[in-house]
Amino acid sequence: GIITLTTNMSSPLLEFVKRSRLPVVDVAAGSSVPRFSRVQPDNFAIGRVAAEEFLGRGFQHFAFFTLDRTAPVVSERIRGFRATVEQAGHRLHVLDYTERIKMKGGWEFMLLWLGRELKKLPKPLATMAQYDAEASYIVKAAMEANLHVPEEIGVIGVDNDPIYSELCLVPLTSVISNMELVGYQG
User: Fold this and answer.
1) What is the reported pTM?
2) How many helices (H) and strands (E) does the chain have?
3) Cβ neighbour number for residue 142 with a 10 Å cutoff
4) Of 8, 50, 73, 177, whose Cβ has the fewest other Cβ atoms within 10 Å?
5) What is the pLDDT of residues 73-93, one digit of tens each?
6) Which is nearest to 125 in space by CA: 67, 60, 77?
7) Which of 59, 41, 40, 31 is nearest to 156 (CA)?
8) Distance between terminal CA atoms of the chain?
């Protein structure tokens, strides 16, 4: 059998896997290859857990930052975060950079945009990012916009990736998606 991450596969490799006639399990979050069996984390629950953490800390203002709202994994996380926030009587602001990602200016322009967007929202603001990498962008953008983390901007990422969670300018809080279990189940 084959355990694969289809989102990271080049077309020739994907075609090889399709033609293999072996059982295939896809462990990629938000895979777009419907004919493969899949094992994925519960992305709705990941969003819910992040919102519950912020609500438990007394936050009343919430935002979700995404670089790609079209990815199924991201839309599920937003749905879980939004449902929990709204059930508690609050509103969610989605800081969506999807359309701008193709524009010139790169990472520095994105940080400026994100800093401006964070400044517009009420504080203290609880922000969730689709992954830890994007959570580190929130931290950097907030600091460059003279916003204090975590006093004014609380940040949660996903995956507990040590590269980001331990080496970020401020230690990150992160929802553990338990990819080891996903791989084991695959």
Assistant:
1) 0.88
2) 7, 8
3) 25
4) 8
5) 899 999 999 999 999 999 999
6) 60
7) 59
8) 10
